[in-house]
Structure formats: C-alpha cells, structure tokens
Amino acid sequence: MVNQGIINLNLSSLSLAYGMVLLTIGLARLQRIGQERQMLVASLRMVLQLLAVGYLLHIVFSVNNPLLVMLILLVMMGLAVQVMGARAKHKMPRFYLVVGSSIFIGCGGVTALFCFMVVGYSPWYDPRYLIPLTGMIIGNSMNSASLAAERLAAEIKQRREEIETAICLGATARQAAETAVKSAFRAALIPTINTMAAMGIVSLPGMMTGQILSGTEPAIAVRYQIAIMCAITGSVAFTSYLILLQGYRHYFTAAHQLKDDVERG
Amino acid sequence: MVKDIDGGKAVMVSMEQITLVRRDSDGRKVALLEDISFSAHRGEITVIVGPSGGGKSSLIRLINRLGEPTSGKIILDGEDIFHIDPLTLRHKVAMVLQKPFMFEETVLANLQRPFLFRQQPLPAAESPEVLHALELARLSPELLKRDARTLSLGEQQRVNLARALITGPRVVLLDEPTSALDRPTGDQLAATFHDISRAQQLTLLLVTHDLRLAGKIADFLIYLEGGRICETGTPSELLTEPKSAELVRFLAEPEKWEE
Questions:
Q1: Among chain A residues, CA nearest to B82
Q2: Reduced to 3 states, what is the DSSP secondary structure of residue B206?
Q3: What is the reported pTM?
Q4: Mean pLDDT score, A180-192
Q5: Which one of A115, B2, B35, B258 has the fewest beta carbons within 10 angstroms of its own beta carbon?
Q6: Mind listing the domains of chain B with CATH numbers?
Q7: pLDDT at A265 (0 to 100)
Q8: CA of A157 to nearest chain B CA: how many angstroms apart?
Q9: How far apart, in whole angstroms, are the C-alpha atoms of residue B14 and residue B142?
Q10: What single DSSP character describes residue B226?
Q11: What pLDDT digit, counting tens, does each position of A142-168 carry?
C-alpha cells in the first residue's frame, strides 16, 4: 500500500512550515494580544512531542515485539483515563475503577475485533496497524466516556427527588436510575452520530486524508475510513454503556438507597 | 411474633436508641440523631414536630430505609426492619415526600407506578385498587387521564398520597406533606390524613415544623430539637403545659404558628 514515491519533508521545508507559526506570533505581537509567549511554547511543545512520538514509534516498529506493543497500548489507555480524571468536574464514586475497566474492556474489545476480524493483518501485533487504530478508537471513546460519566453524575444529582420517589414506591436502584442512565447514554452518543452524519461533507476525515497523501487509492482509503468509523461508534457505545452500567450502582447502597454523599439539591 | 402492647394499644413502629452520625464537609462527625426511642401506635397519627434542621426528616427516612441509622433498632409490627428485605419493607411502609414528584405521564400511570416497579399486573382505571385509592385521597376519577404535571400542587400532593396508599401499606410516612401548599389546601389535606387513619386503621407518622397542623391532627406528639427528643405526649399536654425548656422556647416564637 505504501507508495515509494512519497515526498519526504527535509529540514528546510519543515523550517519553512514553522515560519507560518512565527508569522502568527508576529501578528499576535502586532495586535498586542499578549499570547506570543504561550504560542511559542505551545508550538515548541508540539514539535518536541511529535518528534519524540515519531522516534518512539520508529523504535517500536523496528523492535516489533508483541509485549512491547501491548505495553504501549496499556500506557495509552492509562493516559486516557488520567486525562479524563483531570478533566472531570464531578467525579462519580470509584471513578478510576469504573472508567479504567470500561475503557479497557470496551476499547480493548472493539479494537481486537476490528484489527483481528475486520482488517485481519498478520502478525496480529503488527504495531503499524495496532497502535494507530487503537489510538483512534481510544481517543474518540475517551470523549464520549467523559460525557457519559459527567452526565450521569449531573443527572443523579438533579433527579434526586425522582429517584427517591421511585424508591419509596418500591423501585430497585436500577429502576430508579433508569431515566438518568438513559439520558446520559443519549448524551454520550450524540457527538458520534453527528460526526458520522457530517463525514465526508463538512470535513475529510484525518485517517482517509493521511492514507491518500501517502499514496493509497482513494477507494481503499474510503473503505478504511468507513470501517474505522463503525468501530469507533461501536467502541463509543460499548465503553459508555459499561461506564453507566457500573457507574450508577456506586450511587446506591445494597439496600437500594441513594447514598448520602450525593449532594442534596 | 411478639407484638408489643403498650397501654392497651398495639405498637406498630418503635425506635430503640437510634443514633445517626454523619461526617460534614470538613470530615468532622456530627450527630444528627441521638438516642431516639419512641413508639407509634396502630391507627394513630404520630406527629414529629420541631424546628427545621432538627433531624425530623432524617428520622422519618430511617423507617422505610431511605437512610440507615448508625446504631439502634427499629421494630415494625414486632419485626426488626433490618431483617426485612428493603423492597418488601417499602411495600409495607409507604412514604409521601415533601414535594410531590409526578412522573411525566397521566395520573393513572403515576398510580400504576408501584405495580410497574414491582413487576405486577397494572390495575386499570376502573379497578377497585385505583378507585379505592382515589376515594381515600379525595380525588375525582376524571383526573385519571390528565397529565399529572398539569395538576395544581394540592392535587399533585393528593395523587402522591393515593400513589402511596394504592398498594395497601400498613404504615404511611409523611415528610412535611403540607409545607408546599397554601394554608386552606394544606388544612383540607390534613383532614384527609385524619379520616384515612381512622377509617383504615392506618398508622401515620408525620413530620412538620408547623405546630398548628401538629396540634390539629396528632394523636401523639414528639418534640424533636437538635437531634434529640425533648418531650413527648398528647397535643393538649405538650401544647398547653410544655415541660422542656426547648419546647417552651419554640412555643413562644409566634411565627411558628403562622405557617
């Protein structure tokens, strides 16, 4: 698939590209918006981080060891959970356990299905496929999983009266939390549905663009894009559902009581 | 099963040395209830009265296990409630919360909720269960088809009551049931509580900060302040000859009577 004729970017062409950032910084200075320093730091971070990742991937690709690839995937998942934890304003009880296991099972399961059954390359651990595909699936699922967790916390707090009324009328914790869970699940799915609906019209998706740039036939690149989008949708739904299914339980006691640490509205 | 008899009247609910300790936001332990013991008798209205923040709601919520005490015993009709499955307990002990929460559906569907949650066949609009519950709560069957959220607050609180009564509980807990209503509407509802407890031999436990209401409908009155029972007795004993300093002070605050 890889076209030998791909143009390598040498240092001078990269410098030329970086000139555009410098131009932006110049413009910021001229307009006195006072963001020059942050812009410079951010652009340098970007360059260094990407160079480091490229170098790391280069090593991983040449070592080509299944254990090393698995370790990288685990680190990716761990970082995703950490980013979610740092971002969440209202953490659900046992946040890291619930979110970590959901990402691991949800994203891991869908990635395995996609890589081994749909794409079906070999060897199964080929980092050239496994790492970027896992990255795309985790990256997208992470956002929806954050939404699901955040929304569930907000819904349970906001629906306290409804939940306690249901409990008084003999509902189990699961029945009492049903509307909150449904509403959180809906919120988690909406961005992915919107992305799917706009795909190819509003923007050309990154993976497809990248493949076309590196010389893949557009017809093949489109098929990959369709397949990965389906996998992302599946992973988003599966991961969010796992979070909600495990998450709501931690708001209740075994006696079907809403826990007291859920602030009263 | 040993049934407690107390002065010739059957004890339906009793608390024995109940304490409830919570941690506040700074992690310090705060006692919300301390050494609470009392009995509520069958077919009577027991009213727990006292200032806001005195632990009344926390107390009543323990009886259908919306909350859990730190220590102590609660006996329902001779049985320790912690030995009863919570879902079964809530079948026997119904509760009406302060703000009537109406599910976004018809009044009939709201009344069917307890059956829905328990996965039992839903009673129809003309069924004896529905008609009896409407009659007890003094609601017209014409309301059944209405969206419950479009009813007045007073009507909603009656639907709330009918919904609690429809499965035939032995005990009904009422947490400030009239505080969201205007005075005439609240008084009419209180009269309904009185009739139900007499006609159905139902045991009612009602929490309020409204002394006027308490004096009107209570068979037995408990004065709770600062998480402790300061005094108990009949309304005439407590309201005319208060003995505890706390109740004397509470009675002297006239705004308490106006609510």
A1: A255
A2: strand
A3: 0.84
A4: 94
A5: B2
A6: 42-64+85-258 (3.40.50.300)
A7: 34
A8: 15
A9: 39
A10: T
A11: 989 999 999 999 999 999 999 999 999
